[in-house]
Design a protein that fits this description.
Two copies of one chain form a homodimer.
Chain A (H helix, E strand, L loop, with lengths): L2 H10 L7 H9 L1 E6 L4 E3 L7 E7 L1 E7 L5 E8 L3 E2 L2 H6 L6 E4 L3 E7 H10 L2 H26 L2 H11 L1 H4 L4 H8 L3 H13 L1
Antiparallel strand pairs in A: 1-8, 2-7, 3-6, 3-8, 4-5, 4-7
Helix pairs in contact in A: 6-9, 8-9
Chain A binds a DNA duplex through α9.
Chain lengths: 195, 195
DNA sequence: TAAAAGTCTTAAACTAGTTCATTTTTTTTC
DNA sequence: GAAAAAAAATGAACTAGTTTAAGACTTTTA
């Protein structure tokens, strides 16, 4: 089996067991997508047509505020799911941009195939129940942490939680994720390194 | 049918249809809980034994930081689900307190019954898939908003989004939710009212 | 491989939000 | 319904993080 399919099946198998036939059916519903570094997978104003699983590369998901300043909501690397769930589900225009920070390869599930999946392989209700349950736990933690920690503490937490991502992104993008200016990020890093 | 059961069945029926028999089975798995104003439904250090649906009243979910300052992660009123999902699922001790701010009545789903539910009525995989999907969309919005808006903007958003809750909670608790001090909350409110 | 573009650093002046202390107002309790 | 307790308001001194600007360093591109 090709590596990308193996990766996504391994991901799915963390929560549900699929028969060979179900695996084939699932794979038939996936679309392969490649994006070059700096290219957009999706732009604000569009309706999110896919949810993506990353098999190679790194992407950032962000919005621009009224002043045009970027706010990064997530970085996604191999074995991560990404997209704009709100837009994908509600079919309202997205406010997010998704841009590759490295040449990347993804598997996309279209909205039509997403609905079809639950009809054809009802087990996927469980898969998504578990996937969303886990994401929800992470987001609840994050939205409480975000509000109660200082920027320096959030930086230290990020480094501890995502050591493999820190080295793949710019300091500027990390600032956009932490919620501070690149200048202040620079100060924090030089301070933390001195400690 | 008693009002609390009618309320929870209405809530469930937004996402799935249950037969009369399934309704009865579901209700048999629920535990009725009453908490007086100022009493705790749950305290930090305990393992979350239930997920709760509120049929009457109002509760706040919060942690205490190292300095003992409260950070409120949600207010829950009639027709809301609450609890500590992370502790409920992982069975690790919770860091949250849940305290009633009014005399309240709830229906609890124990961890054992939660697992049983999926075996007995597999449709509930879909219900929770949809429920978590919707919560996730809200949390993603909130965790991005939290970081990019000023405290004043977050207050205005809260009032617009939860007008029915604003009048049921203290200004101090709202400050704990918005992520600022009660003193600064007071300033913001008098400023916003003057506008 | 040179030029251009983008990223990182540093520093000074500024602002949103905190802290601490005091008074007034509202709510709770007996 | 009086006393006690808690919440809200106000103000002055403080701090975490922003803004603006300029120079050094790195990466990208032709």
């Amino acid at each position: 089996m090709e590596r990308p399919y193996q990766l996504i099946l391994d991901n799915v198998s963390r929560f549900i067991d699929l028969t060979k036939l179900e695996q084939q059916k699932y794979i038939s519903l996936l679309t392969t997508v490649k994006v070059k570094r700096k290219a957009f997978l999706m732009q604000a104003g569009e309706i999110a047509k896919y949810e993506y699983f990353i098999t190679k590369g790194c992407l950032k998901v962000y919005t621009l505020d009224e002043d045009g300043a970027p706010h990064i909501s997530m970085f996604a690397v191999e074995d991560y799911w990404t997209g704009d769930l709100a837009s994908f589900i509600t079919k309202e225009p997205s406010r997010y941009f998704i841009k590759a920070t490295e040449d990347s390869e993804l598997l996309g599930v279209s909205r039509v195939n997403y609905d079809l999946l639950f009809q054809e392989i009802p087990k996927f209700e469980r898969f998504y129940r578990m996937l969303y349950q886990r994401s929800l736990i992470n987001y609840i933690r994050r939205s409480n942490h975000g509000i109660s920690l200082t920027a320096e503490e959030r930086y230290i937490e990020f480094k501890k939680k995502y050591p493999e991502i820190v080295n793949r992104i710019t300091q500027k993008d990390l600032a956009g994720y932490i919620g501070i200016t690149p200048e202040f990020m620079s100060k924090i890093i030089s301070k933390v390194n001195r400690m």
